[in-house]
Amino acid sequence: MKVDKKNFDAIIIGSGIGGLVTASQLAAKGARVLVLEKYIIPGGSGGSFKRKGYTFDVGASMIFGFGKEGYTNLLTRALKDVNEKCETIPDPVQLEYHLPNGKTIAVDREYKEFISKLSEHFPEEKEGISKFYGTCKKVFNCLDSMPLLSIEDPAYLFKVFFKAPLSCLGLARWLPINAGDVARRFIKDDELLNFIDIECFCWSVMPALKTPMINAGMVFTDRHAGGINYPKGGVGKIAEKLVTGIEKLGSKIRFRANVTEILLKNKKAVGVKLSNGEEIYSDIIVSNSTRWDTFGLGNNDKGLIARDYVPKNEYKWSETYKPSPSFVSIHLGVDGGLIDKSFNCHHIIVDDWEELEDEKGVIFISIPTLLDASLAPEGKHIIHAFTPSSICEWDNLSREEYLLKKENYYSFLIKKISKLIP
Q1: Quick check: 232 pLDDT over 60?
Q2: What is the pTM of this model?
């Protein structure tokens, strides 16, 4: 079965937040877009699902991008472009870290308060703390004064140079630099440098030496400038609102539409093929799948692009970079009395700095009902805990081995949750 290519100006593979924001920008400019999603709900790891009166977030509940000013408020602007808006609840504390030495450090929404409290933990590094996070703020100010597309691409900076020359020059110097090297210019204390590592790891899943300074500058400052704001009704509301706005503008989202191949003609993408054999054509094809899945890189035997047509530079790219790990999650509904109202929403536990990048090395815990009680039945709370785990750890397991491994992870996460919530 074929659909005439004139029906759609662009096809987007995947309804993760990246795919939906891309669709929103095209639809807002008058394009008719078709988004193809193999699952039954939109959002990918930014989606939500419901069970027995609970609304669980698929992935993280700690959301950036809902600020009101500048250019880094990407979610606010994407929703506005399709005439939609999310009601949000401000989180007074971004995150509470539980560190190997027994230290507990909370990241306050107010920048000065955070810097002051962190300096109390490391009084001899007060100046270094101020200089490192101050440098992050300078990077952020450059980002916040120019339209954001590909902030790590020198070619993009050249394109927007005449719109914001000083900002472009300010960013260009940071393109090849990582956050770890910048931190080491100002900070000597190993324990504080470890803290900078987990600060980066909590969103990049990489330590500071592997995290671009531009990205660190954005996150470490936006959490204070725009703040961490939880979408009322669950993180999935973001995707749902984007879908609503996109469809109102005449575009379409299809679920249970599993793209297995990007169709090529004269080395140009001209359409897609679904698992049911259906072929859909358009002049523009955008893949919101990962680079590894799109081109069949790494351990993937088959990508969406036929192997003979994968550009050689993609293989070179895959030798330089490795995929971030996936996560194993547990979603719990618990009695409300277990959790004090003064408890912070988001927590990270690190028991050993040497295991930061290992399987189970870091545990993330969120209780989003502390911000939005409507996510659970009355008198109940939600606890969502997850830990990094690479997909290769789960490959080629028998059914029995899979269930046993799943049970082991469940017991491990329950034990870690019990450290914070007895």
Answers
A1: yes
A2: 0.89
